[in-house]
From TrEMBL:
Family: Belongs to the aromatic-ring hydroxylase family. KMO subfamily.
Enzyme class of the recorded protein, top EC level: oxidoreductase
Pathway, per record: Cofactor biosynthesis; NAD(+) biosynthesis; quinolinate from L-kynurenine: step 1/3
Source species taxonomy: Bacteria, Bacillati, Actinomycetota, Actinomycetes, Pseudonocardiales
Catalysed reactions listed for this entry: L-kynurenine + NADPH + O2 + H(+) = 3-hydroxy-L-kynurenine + NADP(+) + H2O
Keywords per UniProt: FAD, Flavoprotein, Membrane, Monooxygenase, NADP, Oxidoreductase, Pyridine nucleotide biosynthesis, Transmembrane, Transmembrane helix
Organism: Amycolatopsis acidicola
Free-text function comment from the UniProt entry: Catalyzes the hydroxylation of L-kynurenine (L-Kyn) to form 3-hydroxy-L-kynurenine (L-3OHKyn). Required for synthesis of quinolinic acid.
Name the UniProt record assigns to this protein: Kynurenine 3-monooxygenase
Signal peptide, first to last residue: none
GO biological process, one term: anthranilate metabolic process
Membrane spanning residue stretches: 409-426
Gene name in the database record: kmo
Domain (FAD-binding) ranges: 2-329
Length: 431
C-alpha cells in the first residue's frame, strides 16, 4: 500500500497517477472534507494555471473539467496611480492565456477524481513517521491512529510534517527563507452582475516596493491580493485604523477604492499570509519521499507553485516507469532529475517579484517586451521569451535560463553582423 500524506493539489493528482499504475493508494488529509466544509476567510487563493499544470491534468483526462471552472487571462493590465491602464499581452500573437482558477475549486475536482480509485481519509494529521519501516501515527478526532505503508509520500505542503520527520531522524536538513513581505486578500465584487474590471487580464497595481494583483472568478468577482512588506511605513503593520486604511488606498490605489465596498472590513479581518522558499538537502529516505511544496515551496510571483507540483507528479511517474516500478530506485531518480528544475523556478519566482512590482510599469520594460514579441514573430520557435518558456511550454525550468541566454547571444551576434554588413556597404559606397 502507498500512503500519500496531504490531500491538496499534488497529493490528489499523485493518487490519480498511481492508481492508474495499479497501485493501492490511501490518501491521508489533515482537514475535514473541504467539499463540505468551505474555505477559510481571506484564504481563497486563485491560481494561474498554465501549460505545465495543464499537461499533467491532460494525462489523466482532467483538463476539460478543470478549465470549465477557469477564466483565461491573455495578458497583464497595468494600473498606474494616475492615468490610463495599459494591457501587455503574454504572448507575441496575443492568443496564449494563463487560467485563473480558485485553489479550492481545483482541489475539489482533484479530490473527486482521486476518490474514484484511492481511499481518502480526512481529519488524519500525520504526527509521526518512521521512514525506514513506513509506520505512521495520526491525530484524529477519535484519538491516535496507527498505520503502516510500503511507501509514504509527503504531499503535505510548505510546512510538511513528513519533511519534519525526515529532519527528526537526520535524513535531511532544511532552510526556510521567508520574505519580509506577506499577502492579504481583498474581494472586488461584481458590479450590477458584471465584472468590475476586464476579466481577460491579470490586473497589477505595481507600486515600486509593493503591489496588488487581482484575478477574475467565475462569479464575476475578483480576488485581489496585496503583496506588501510586513513591517515599516508602507507595510501591513502601519495601517492600524480604518481612516489610515482609507487614506492609504485613496493615495496609492485610487481606482480600486470605489470597487471594494468592504475595503476596511476586508483589510482588518483578513489574515496576512507568509511567503517564502523552502529548500531541503534530501527529498527521500528509506520508504519516504517528498513532492510538491513539501520538497520545494516557492514564492508565488511566477504563478508556478502548483504548476511545478503537478509537473513533479509527471516526472515521478516517468521515474517509476524507468525503475520498473521499484520505489527504492524511483525516489532517488526523481530527486536527481528534478532538483535543478525546482531550484531554477525558485530563483525565477523571486526575480519575477521585482519585475511585477516595479519594472512592468516602466517604458523601458514595455519597449523590451515589444522587441521580444517582434523577435518571436520574426523567428517563430527559435526566439521564445522567458515568460513563454515558463508558462506556455514544458521545457525543463533549468533549461529556460540557458536557452534565453543563448537566444540573447544569437540576437546580439546577428545584430553585430548586420551592423558590420551595413558599415561595409557604406564604406564601398564612399569609395
Ligand atoms: C498567495 C498565493 C498565490 C499563489 N498563486 C499561484 C499561482 O498563480 N499559480 C501556481 O501554480 N501556484 C500558486 N501558488 C502556489 C500553490 O498554491 C502551491 O504551490 C500548491 O498549492 C502546492 O500544492 P501541494 O499539494 O504541494 O501543497 P498544498 O496545496 O499546500 O497541499 C498540502 C495538503 O496537505 C495537508 N496537510 C498538511 N499537513 C498535513 C499533515 N500533517 N497530515 C495530513 N495532511 C496534511 C494540507 O491540509 C493540504 O491539503 C500560490 C500560493 C500562494 C500562497
Amino acid at each position: 500500500m502507498i500512503a500519500i500524506v496531504g490531500g491538496g493539489l499534488a497529493g490528489c493528482l499523485l493518487a490519480c497517477f498511481l492508481t492508474r499504475r495499479g497501485e493501492e493508494v490511501v490518501l491521508y488529509e489533515r482537514r475535514a472534507d473541504p467539499r463540505a466544509a468551505g474555505a477559510e476567510r481571506g484564504r481563497s487563493i486563485n491560481l494561474a494555471l498554465s501549460e505545465r499544470g495543464l499537461d499533467a491534468l491532460r494525462r489523466v483526462d482532467l483538463v476539460a473539467d478543470v478549465l470549465a471552472g477557469a477564466l483565461p487571462m491573455r495578458g497583464r493590465m497595468i494600473h498606474p496611480v494616475e492615468g490610463e491602464t495599459g494591457f501587455q499581452p503574454y504572448s507575441a500573437d496575443g492568443t496564449r492565456a494563463i487560467n485563473s482558477i480558485s485553489r479550492a475549486a481545483l482541489n475539489d475536482i482533484l479530490l473527486d477524481a482521486a476518490g474514484k480509485s484511492a481511499r481518502i481519509v480526512f481529519e488524519h494529521r500525520l504526527t509521526r513517521l518512521d521512514p525506514e519501516s513506513g509506520e505512521m501515527r495520526f491525530d484524529t478526532p477519535g484519538g491516535e491512529v496507527h498505520a503502516t505503508a510500503d511507501v509514504v509520500l509527503g504531499a503535505d505542503g510548505a510546512g510538511s510534517a513528513v519533511r519534519g520527520q525526515l529532519l527528526r531522524v537526520g535524513a535531511t536538513t532544511e532552510s526556510l527563507d521567508f520574505l519580509d513581505y506577506g499577502y492579504k486578500e481583498l474581494t472586488i465584487p461584481a458590479r450590477a452582475g458584471e465584472f468590475a474590471l476586464d476579466p481577460g487580464a491579470l490586473h497589477i497595481w505595481p507600486r515600486g516596493r509593493s503591489m496588488m494583483i487581482a484575478l477574475p472568478n467565475p462569479d464575476r468577482s475578483f480576488t485581489a491580493t496585496l503583496f506588501w512588506p510586513t513591517s515599516g511605513t508602507a507595510g501591513f503593520a502601519s495601517l492600524s485604523s480604518p481612516a489610515a486604511v482609507e487614506r492609504y488606498f485613496a493615495e496609492h490605489y485610487p481606482d480600486v477604492v470605489p470597487l471594494i465596498p468592504d475595503l476596511v472590513e476586508d483589510y482588518q479581518l483578513n489574515p496576512v499570509g507568509l511567503l517564502g522558499t523552502v529548500r531541503c538537502t534530501s527529498w527521500q529516505s528509506g520508504r519516504a519521499g517528498l513532492i510538491g511544496d513539501a520538497a520545494h515551496a516557492i514564492v508565488p510571483f511566477y504563478g508556478q507553485g502548483a504548476n511545478c507540483a503537478f509537473e513533479d507528479v509527471v516526472v515521478l511517474d516517468r521515474c517509476l516507469t524507468e525503475a520498473g516500478g521499484d520505489w527504492a530506485r524511483a525516489l532517488p531518480l526523481f530527486e536527481a532529475g528534478r532538483r535543478a528544475d525546482t531550484e531554477a523556478i525558485a530563483r525565477m519566482a523571486l526575480a519575477n517579484f521585482v519585475e511585477m512590482r516595479d519594472k512592468v510599469a516602466s517604458p523601458v520594460f514595455r519597449l523590451g517586451q515589444r522587441i521580444e514579441h517582434s523577435l518571436e514573430r520574426l523567428l517563430p520557435g527559435r526566439y521564445v521569451s522567458r515568460y513563454e518558456l515558463v508558462s506556455f511550454s514544458t521545457v525543463p525550468y533549468a533549461q529556460v535560463g540557458r536557452r534565453v541566454r543563448r537566444q540573447h547571444g544569437a540576437v546580439a551576434g546577428a545584430g553585430a553582423v548586420a551592423a558590420l554588413a551595413v558599415a561595409g556597404v557604406a564604406r564601398k559606397l564612399r569609395r
